[in-house]
Amino acid sequence: MVQPRTAQARVLIVDDEEDLCWTLTKILEDLNYQIVCAHTAKAALQHLQKDQQKDKSIRLALLDVRLPDMGETGGLELLKKIKRLRPRMPVIIMSAFGSPAVKTQAKRLGALAFLDKPFRIEKLLKILRENLG
Q1: pLDDT-based confidence at 52, cuts 50/70/90?
Q2: pTM
C-alpha cells in the first residue's frame, strides 16, 4: 500500500473523460495530492496562467492526447504550450491511442512519460513519487 504524502503537491489533470478525472482525483486526493481538473486545453491553460502562488502552484500535469477543443493530438499541442509557460514542469501524457509516432513526438516535446490507457494506477503513482517527492 502506498503511504499518504504529508505535503500537498498540486497536479493538473486534463482529460475530457469526466469519469477518469473523477477517479484519478479521488485516488490522488486520498494520497494527499491536491488536484485541479480541466476537460479542455483552453481550461487547462487558464488554470496554469492563474496559478502564480509559489507554495500552491501546479507542480505536474497529466494530459490526454485527444482533447475536444484541439483535435486528435491536441494534447501534444498543449504540451508545447505548457513547456513554454513552465519549462521545468513534468508532464505525463496518457492515451488509448498511443502510436509509436505519437509517443516519439511526446518524448521529443519534453513529456516525462507516456501512459497507455488503461494504465495501472501503481505506474502513475511511481512516477508521481519519483518527481514530486
Answers
A1: low
A2: 0.90
Q: Write down how long the chain is.
A: 133
* Dihedrals phi, psi of 12, to nearest 5 degrees: -95, 125
Q: Is the pLDDT of residue 6 over 70?
A: no
CA distance 46 to 96: 25
Closest CA to 95 of 126, 130, 69, 64: 64
- Look up residue 74 and give its three cell numbers: 491536441
> What is the residue type of 58?
I
3-state SS track over the chain: CCCCCCCCCEEEEECCCHHHHHHHHHHHHHCCCEEEEECCHHHHHHHHHHCCCHHHCEEEEEEECCECCCECCHHHHHHHHHHHHCCCCCEEEEECCCCHHHHHHHHHCCCCEEEECCCCHHHHHHHHHHHHC
pLDDT at 114 over 70: yes
